[in-house]
Amino acid sequence: MMSGKGHSATGSDRFEYLQTLVTEFQDTDSDEAKEQVLANLANFAYDPRNLENLRTLQVTDLFLDMLTEENENFVEFGIGGLCNLSMDRECRGQILQSEAIPLVTGCLSSRREETVLSAITTLMNLTTAASRSQTTDTAVLQCMLRFSISQSPRLRNLASVFLQDCCTEEQVARAEAQMQGHHPTALGIPLPKD
Amino acid sequence: MAGFTNSSCWSTPEVYKHHEQQKICPSRPKYREGRRPKAVKVYTINLESRYLMLQGVPAIGVMTELIELSALYGAVDEYRVLDEYPAEQFTEVYLVKFQKLTSARAAKRHMDEKSFFGGLLHVCYAPEYETVEDTRLKLQDRRRYVNTMTQNKAKEQEQDQGDEESKKPMSSYTVATTARTSSGDDQRSSDTSNKGETSSTSQGHYLGFPLLPLPPQEFLPYRHAPPYDRSYSYQANQCRTIPTEDKMGSLHNAINIKQQLAPSVSSVPSSSGGDRGIVKRLSKNPPPAAPPRFIPRTTHLENRKRKIVETNKDSLFGFVDKNETLIGPKLPDRPKMDMADESLNITANMIRNTLKKVASVPEVKPAEKKTKSAKPRRRI
Fold it and tell me: Are B6 and B107 in contact (CB under 8 A)?
């Protein structure tokens, strides 16, 4: 049904496996291996049953560390993992404790659509009463406004959901006015390649 | 709001990067090797969608067949051929919108890379066809699902601890999110002496239902790795009604299980009749202790028929109990989905009850048919 036959194992086995992954990630010098392990961990974060183990292993911080890497794959997989983790309330708390919001909003400027999409979803998930002022800060809103008229339907849709569900209408109106006026921000506009 | 330009979701398609098949990764060490070669890719809810794009469909007028095949994995809302989408020669590209994300997931899992009328299908999610509302609902569903799963798990653990300390029923739990807890409590409070047996029987019976096709596993190469909460399902001497999620977080099997349980759990035994009921049922139906296996549908139906006949016998003897429509060991309450809103919950309950009624009809039919088919024979 859920597990392969003959592989009798329990939660602790899964924990050990995840721990092995984290250890390999920390020990290896190969970027290729790192990418693979990172993708593995991010995918494990999709399954709610792994969340507790991943929290214990502090994988949140591992993912957050990736957001400032040069390697774009690292960033994409890291924010993908955070996007998956942040669906859960407790993980959300752990992420917010690590001062994650600036790191996540930084990903909005990525050239990769997948990275930007994960960042928007993560921001939505991270929006709580306490963090709202940070996640829906003017720069973020202006960025979402730009995304909401993007060519890409996925980006457009997700940004629209963000603006409609995470922000008040006044906030959006204010951001729109500021965008036309004197306080435009450049958040979410990727730098030209080289 | 926000200058959103609503282009039709069926407008001219573009080729997106996520449609491309990525290269598989050949360089994984053994312990990280999955059953199927996979690319290095991270799946998030953003990549998934109830819209699927089916490429490589031979252009020989097999649309009906294609949609029929798709519908095996869940109700299809809409479909159309994507004429404008670049396709290989003599093939067509189709867009199929499923009613549920879980169906799309299952369809992708089973149809991708499979041959179809001589062509090789390439199936991918097409989230760019979603509307804003589609996207919103997709995210909400996902959040709710993760929430329910983690809450269930937390309760399981609490219960485990509770079991060790005392066996008093934990009535303080709300039934809202998990029927697993409530059913466990029912069993424990009503039937402490029989506990071990009851659980094994109910589990056995529960597992005796025909299993659904294996859940899709899109990205996790660690199929051999066991689910985390497996130990609980065995230790906690109760059967699992917790929706088992596949590797993509799908509940499609859980939903189906619920529907299958529906006919048998048509009425929940009250705690007053509980003890007797369980003992009786135990003696009547020895637990099928076999591990979960695929059971052909016909066998399953025959079993069902036999069980109906058995209960009918009982009723002839006068053992009619209103709560006793149950056959076999007591099953736990079906997991009740919390719709996070009271009125939605009420509606869901009404739908559930109607489904129950509808689902119980085919159980009666075979018996009726029998008597009908017997008559003409006599005439001849």
Answer: no
